[in-house]
Specification:
single chain, about 45% helix, binds heme C
């Protein structure tokens, strides 16, 4: 059995599911992801710079209750001017766009992260982020 093939299929299915959620319920909760898998994605991709504990900033701001929060809202974190003037609210869709391509979503921002191309991993990650509030 091809491991790569199986992973690709899983990723493709995630894309489909995420797509369906966009189409059916754009403003409702982000229900497609697997929070446990999302915790692993967070640990591997984000935890170096972000804590999920309220009030704990690392290289990046705390992501406690980030879903629904306005961008650059943590008072004691030094955001880039680009982030401060982005005008974003961190909906699941907006986080998805940012995590896909941080430098495109916030040009001039200071998050040194290249982006997460795997849609399934992003859906899981966002489900996890949404669960910590
Ligand atoms: C190398 C460090 C680093 C990594 C890795 C990283 N971030 Fe960030 N993140 C930052 C920094 C720094 C900022 C502030 C950016 C700015 O002000 O332009 C930020 C900002 C953010 C914000 C905006 C928060 C707010 O209060 O407005 C979100 C959401 C976010 N990151 C999510 C993630 C996610 C999810 C991951 C993992 C996929 C991740 N980041 C990986 C450093 C990082």
């Amino acid at each position: 059995m091809s491991l790569v093939g199986a992973r690709w299929k899983r990723a493709a299915r995630g894309t489909l599911i995420a797509g369906a959620v966009f189409a059916l319920a754009p403003a409702v909760s982000w229900g497609a992801g697997d929070t446990q898998a999302g915790l692993d994605v967070f640990a591997g991709q984000c935890a170096e710079c972000h804590s999920m504990k309220e009030g704990k900033n690392k290289k990046g701001p705390s992501l406690f209750a980030v879903v629904g929060r306005k961008a650059a809202a943590i008072a004691d974190f030094k955001y880039s001017d680009a982030m401060k003037s982005s005008g974003y609210t961190w909906t699941p869709e907006q986080i998805d766009a940012y995590v896909t391509a941080p430098k495109k979503a916030v040009p001039g921002g200071t998050m040194k992260y290249d982006g997460l191309p795997d849609a399934k991993a992003r859906a899981d990650l966002i489900a996890y982020l949404a669960s910590v509030k």
